[in-house]
């Protein structure tokens, strides 16, 4: 899910007039009688404790607050941007792309959707229909039943293993706040905590750092499990104070705005030590930074 309007809590959002068609589709789907979710193994709903305390200090790359970055999820990869961190699509870029960025002394983050199914990914056929929920407002995408860790864990582990094999340094898991959205499943905050910690644990198991994408309400509980954060539009929606547990812990918050000019958010970003960019919804190579 990327580069256009989304439902609350899931990333870039457009004005209400632009979102109405998507919302109508969601409401229609919800009232037309979505199939009952498959039975969920009882252990899948049990709380999962934080695993952060089990890791040796300094095991994983931890970018510092204010670290500059480039976020490119569409178009031909442009490796020439002068930024020490790149965040790129894990499926659409190969080991050679990652190696080229490493040659230029960049750290490279692997973008993956871990909370929604995408029909255009090569592993789409491995997801059983029972874990596919309502559409999330993006063509070809549907929320996943994150309670079904028995099904999703091996699938996500394979995706993260792909990132590690290609040489990435970290993972940006997207769609990590399904419980705030009309997913088609009765998801709770506890389900989301369990699932997000699972994803963090899988990433660390493959030697990769991992960032928490959005999910502002659960930052106080999840910050110890993640090495950095990725946020969209916290300035536009006056939510940036919510990400400060990461910067206070010495971890970067990679932040992007789409509707605001840098003059409207950079002063606040500097105060909060955010790594802020202005991007187009296309998330192509273009960017504006908060220049010193």
Automatic annotation (TrEMBL):
<dbReference type="InterPro" id="IPR013785">
    <property type="entry name" value="Aldolase_TIM"/>
</dbReference>
<dbReference type="InterPro" id="IPR017853">
    <property type="entry name" value="GH"/>
</dbReference>
<feature type="region of interest" description="Disordered">
    <location>
        <begin position="35"/>
        <end position="68"/>
    </location>
</feature>
<feature type="signal peptide">
    <location>
        <begin position="1"/>
        <end position="34"/>
    </location>
</feature>
<protein>
    <submittedName>
        <fullName>Endo alpha-1,4 polygalactosaminidase</fullName>
    </submittedName>
</protein>
<dbReference type="InterPro" id="IPR004352">
    <property type="entry name" value="GH114_TIM-barrel"/>
</dbReference>
<dbReference type="Pfam" id="PF03537">
    <property type="entry name" value="Glyco_hydro_114"/>
</dbReference>
<feature type="domain" description="Glycoside-hydrolase family GH114 TIM-barrel">
    <location>
        <begin position="69"/>
        <end position="286"/>
    </location>
</feature>
<keyword id="KW-0732">Signal</keyword>
